[in-house]
Design goal:
By secondary structure, this protein is an alpha/beta fold. The protein has 10 helices and 8 strands.
Length: 305
């Protein structure tokens, strides 16, 4: 038996498992003498990856810690293509995560932008033509976050977002709202007015009671998360945002006040994320990863002229 086949998927111990009867469906159960837990090998929904649950959980931990692809590959002794494929499995498992988020209380709204550098999507200026305002070679991300740190972040458009982007993307994410705080951007007015609550321009608040510092700090963390990864493909931006929002919200829900608590919560997050992946109703193949278009519909919405 190979080491991989004789590896405990729960703790990673090699050659420590013995047969331990069968379950009600007649499948062989094993008992690990190291961690004292039993498991069924055929129950692993990641079996097609030829990797143990233990190794995949280590990968999730490194991903949660925002470790670069190259470092993950070196630590797990796999190539970078494998790491990118595993990341895609995580991304697809969180594809609908933000659909179920509801924000309550005071909600801060803002936009942030990331550059579009990929030649396939970049718009080239021709002679004697200039692009006014925010360049179409910037990708607009709308973010909303409440005072408890629960957030949503979605790609809206190239250049500036329009009023309908706010309405189409975020209406279902708003629960009981007391007020909106924004940075003076008028494009969100129609969206905010539909909830019949006060909306405050944080930049013009002379008493500094309603600061937008929280959302500015959020944008700094978000961009650091995205740009930390060499070879980041702009078409995968929404995938990265879904994972980022999941991670930030999990930490906020569990109120991580210090590093010791934060480390414990991250360990719980690994198990929670692993359960989400295991519940996926479809095996995500490498071909799925290679064919995924991401947000190409947005990136190709404006053609070169």
């Amino acid at each position: 038996m190979s080491k991989l086949n004789n590896l405990c998927p729960l703790c990673g111990s090699v050659d420590s498992s013995i047969k331990h009867g069968k379950d009600t469906k007649g499948r062989q159960r094993f008992l690990c003498k190291s961690c004292k837990r039993s498991y069924i090998k055929d129950s692993n929904t990641l079996k097609h990856l030829k990797v143990s649950d233990y190794i995949f959980k280590k990968f999730l931990g490194l991903m949660i810690d925002d470790t670069t692809i190259e470092v993950i590959a070196r630590n797990l002794n796999v190539n970078t293509k494998t790491v990118n494929y595993w990341k895609f499995i995580v991304f697809k498992s969180l594809e609908d995560y933000q659909d179920n988020i509801e924000l309550h209380g005071t909600i801060l709204i803002d936009e942030t932008f990331i550059p579009i550098r990929n030649k396939k999507y970049k718009i080239v200026k021709h002679a004697n033509k200039e692009t006014r305002g925010i360049s179409y070679n910037q990708l607009c991300i709308i973010t909303m976050i409440n005072l408890e740190g629960i957030s949503v972040a979605k790609v809206a458009s190239r250049a500036m977002a329009l009023p309908h982007h706010y309405i189409d993307l975020f209406t279902n994410n708003i629960g009981y709202v007391e007020r909106f705080i924004y940075d003076g951007n008028v494009r969100g007015f129609q969206f905010m007015k539909s909830f019949n609550v006060e909306y405050i321009d944080g930049k013009r608040d002379i008493n500094e009671k309603y600061s937008i510092d929280l959302v500015d700090h959020y944008h700094s963390i978000l961009k650091r998360h995205i740009f930390k990864h060499n070879g980041f493909n702009i078409k995968n931006t929404q995938h990265y945002l879904n994972f980022f929002v999941y991670r930030q919200n999990y930490l906020s829900y569990n109120k991580t006040k210090n590093m010791r608590i934060k480390n414990k919560v991250k360990n719980k997050m690994i198990d929670d994320l692993f359960k989400i992946i295991k519940k996926a109703d479809k095996k995500i193949t490498y071909r799925d990863y290679m064919k995924d278009l991401g947000i190409e519909d947005i990136l190709l919405s404006i053609k070169n002229k």
